[in-house]
């Protein structure tokens, strides 16, 4: 491969790493064509960009960026696929689904999520990380709960007052 081609690939990887807030390093080399297609389809549905990269080019791209990815450098062995995502837990859930089906691959080698480096053994922790939308939904639910209680109390209090006034009105009549 020509030096110019390598430089362009490194630049493309850098752009991708900057564009997506989270990424996973995954071992996919042992997948057959059918399982590779299934993985690509699952990634597409989950809005995950899947790239097969050369470790040395990925390493150089990471070194050229301002973020410290040094914790992931040991994972850059064998073949590596890069799963780029905007939702930090989406690839972990996808990988866990493949494991549930009895597949040993794809296998997590490392991840960079929420500005933290995770190792190959962190798949459960990564899957349990809540996405931004899930956290927003939790906050809204927490905020709505007291409001619903106040509205319920006001409505029941209003019904009680209405009942008392109705009873008093009937007595006078």
Secondary structure elements and their pairing?
Blueprint: H1 3-19, E1 22-27, H2 33-45, E2 49-53, H3 55-64, E3 80-85, H4 90-100, E4 107-113, E5 116-119, H5 123-128, H6 132-172
Antiparallel strand pairs: 1-3, 1-4, 2-3, 4-5
Helix pairs in contact: 1-3
Sum up the overall morphology in one term: elongated
The domain count comes to 2
Placed side by side, the strands forming the largest sheet appear as 2-3-1-4-5
- Helices and strands, in N-to-C order? HEHEHEHEEHH
Using the coordinates above, name the CATH class of the largest domain: Alpha Beta
Describe the structure.
There is one protein chain. The protein has 173 residues and is α+β, with helices and mostly antiparallel strands. The protein has 2 domains: 3-129, Alpha-Beta Plaits (2-Layer Sandwich); 130-173. It has 6 helices and 5 strands; from the N terminus they run αβαβαβαββαα. The protein has helices at residues 3-19, 33-45, 55-64, 90-100, 123-128, 132-172, and strands at residues 22-27, 49-53, 80-85, 107-113, 116-119. A 5-stranded antiparallel beta sheet has the order 2-3-1-4-5. α1 packs across α3 (55-64). It is elongated and about 100 Å long. The mean pLDDT is 90.
Task: Explain briefly what this protein structure is.
With 173 residues, the protein is of the alpha+beta class. Helix content is 57%, strand content 16%.
Salient structural properties:
173 residues; alpha+beta; Alpha-Beta Plaits; 2 domains; 5-stranded antiparallel sheet; 6 helices; elongated
């Amino acid at each position: 491969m020509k030096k110019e081609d390598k430089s362009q690939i490194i630049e493309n990887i850098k752009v991708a790493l900057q564009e997506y807030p989270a990424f996973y390093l995954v071992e996919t080399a042992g997948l057959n064509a059918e399982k590779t297609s299934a993985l690509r389809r699952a990634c597409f549905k989950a809005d995950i960009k899947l790239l097969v990269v050369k470790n040395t080019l990925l390493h150089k791209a990471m070194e050229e960026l301002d973020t410290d990815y040094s914790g992931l450098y040991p994972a850059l062995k064998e073949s590596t696929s890069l799963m780029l995502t905007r939702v930090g837990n989406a690839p972990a859930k996808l990988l866990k689904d493949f494991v549930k089906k009895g597949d040993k691959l794809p296998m997590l080698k490392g991840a960079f999520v929420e500005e933290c480096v995770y190792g190959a053994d962190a798949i459960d922790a990564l899957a349990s990380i809540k996405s931004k939308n899930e956290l927003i939904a939790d906050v809204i639910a927490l905020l709505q709960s007291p409001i619903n209680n106040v509205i319920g109390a006001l409505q029941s209090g209003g019904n009680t007052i209405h009942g008392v006034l109705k009873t008093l009105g009937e007595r006078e009549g």
